[in-house]
Please model this.
Amino acid sequence: MNIVARILLYLSKTDRRLIGLCSDSAYKTQVSYGVFVMIVGIFAFVSSSYALRTTLSDSYAVFAVSGVYAALVMFIDREIVSATSKGKGMIAARLGLAVFIGLVVSVPIELKLFEKQIVQELKRIQNVDNLPYLNRRREEEAKYREPRQAKYERIQELEKEAGDFQKRKTNELLPSDNQIQGVVKGTGRIGAGPVHRGLNDQLEKTLEQLRQAREDHNKLIVEERDELKRIADEYEKQAIPPADDLLSRYVALGSVKKDPEQGWDAWYMAWGVRLVLIMLELTPALIKMLQEESDYDAMLQANRRRSITRIYAIANDHIEQLVQNGGQNPTPTLMEQLKTEPLTS
Model:
């Protein structure tokens, strides 16, 4: 018997000594039970790893805890597939436990399946929660950006105006057939006459206004930078930080399922995953209940009855010795007899 078969028989809680004496059909059935237990354990490990990573990040503790959780699920499943009683109470307990395990294991897998939609929904929820703070931030930022933008536009107007005066001054110094196009033509009298001097005065006045406007603009830039930083810091203090824990993701998944356009598709997919895992968990239990008793089951029950009968027989013999010996301890003791002739012999 190879190592894989030993592991699968262990997972199905099969007595290897007895199964070695049974038919090939009984052997394969017990191995298949082990396969089901292993598959459920793998799903449990994957789902718990994803769920824990949302809380513990990439810590090594994730794999340790996931391994313990998967082992717990596998041992519970091992007891389910190894139970031999077919009473109504036992059947209900096994089916209920199988459905519960399937639902618990399926939740993190659903979260992984809809991960991109969940991230989008978490961002949307955060934006809605922070909308009042964001609107207030934009209003305060506009109070400082609008004056600076107005001053910048005024600088552009003054620069254009100064450029026009400069070109007109130049035209006053050029002959009529060689003047700059697109601006007011000069008088045609070459030289720095009254018109030229008047344009020069206007240009100096405009340049002074431009210099003052640039100084005011630079002051507004410094003031705006400081105020925008203050506003941003205040927003960061008030804003609701993003939530990425397991509960937030599950709530976001519920919102995805309620989406008017894609909600039903998400709902069908989620329940499809759940039903697959529930069916995977229920299958060995259903097979166990519906199939007829195998030769392995018969041998297992016979071995159990034999062991119990032996224990009762030893106990009855000890009672007779107590009566005959006046209450002295009987020999050999129960443990000594079982060591000499084990129940598995």
